[in-house]
């Protein structure tokens, strides 16, 4: 009798776990379905000829996929130049944000300057359009409009608050006893930060760098205002492919995929680091 009850209880638990897993899978599928469908449709457009992109009823997947749209993107525009511009802008903005944001986050966390953290959050929530007029006037006086410098500098408005905010939450979760032990042994505040706090903050730094990179790479408004013909970033280059006469859906979708590809590949490569950073307290 007891054996039968134990088997029945075990079976119920297995069924409950299976139902929970199925419910979780369905929930994730429902949440991701719109994003996955949009990405699938964009990929489909990039692999079809124009006649299939404008056909009715819609052709969801081409019978004969083609890479003609990707070739046309590189033939009709200097996409490699725009890609290099995006790498310079995003790389410099992310690197400077890490160099300034990690120590700033450490100082704010240790000083418990919550008002300063609120100011940073407010600056992150402020629309980028509110910075355009004063920054455009400043860069115009300095003669920098049309160069890479104003785009990289303005992208720090995006990347620096992200890094600082993430690092504040991460440093606040670290045990203070380790740094106090280092200070007792004679280490300065800077040495305690460099040799104790900084190595422990590696997962949070990775998360901050990835989020800053994605936000900077996808930014459009600053590049559209400050860039010249040879200093456009990838999102601006895709926008300039639109015309009032007609929409070339295939090349446009191919260009959008080219813009997304570096972020997707980077996320896939270091997804373990992102998960470790999130679970370790990288995002408060």
- Poorly predicted regions: none
Helix-strand makeup class: mainly alpha
Question: What is the overall number of helices?
Answer: 14
Return Rg in Å. Answer: 25 Å
Helix % is over 70%
Give the total of beta strands: 0
Approximate strand percentage: under 5%
* Overall pLDDT level: 79
Largest sheet: none
The secondary-structure element order is: HHHHHHHHHHHHHH
- Overall shape: it is flat
Characterise the protein shown here.
About 80% of the residues lie in helices and about 0% in strands. The chain has helices at about 1-45, 50-55, 70-75, 80-110, 115-125, 130-140, 150-170, 175-185, 190-200, 200-215, 220-225, 235-240, 250-270, 270-280. Helix 5 crosses helix 7, helix 7 packs antiparallel against helix 10 and helix 10 packs across helix 14. The N and C termini lie far apart (about 50 Å).
Could you write a compact summary of the structure shown?
With 284 residues, the chain is an all-alpha fold. The protein has helices at residues 2-46, 50-53, 68-76, 79-111, 114-125, 129-142, 148-172, 176-184, 189-200, 202-217, 221-226, 234-239, 249-269, 271-279. 78% of the residues lie in helices and 0% in strands.
Kindly list the characteristics that best describe this protein.
284 residues, mainly alpha, single chain, flat
Layout of secondary structure:
Layout: H1 2-46, H2 50-53, H3 68-76, H4 79-111, H5 114-125, H6 129-142, H7 148-172, H8 176-184, H9 189-200, H10 202-217, H11 221-226, H12 234-239, H13 249-269, H14 271-279
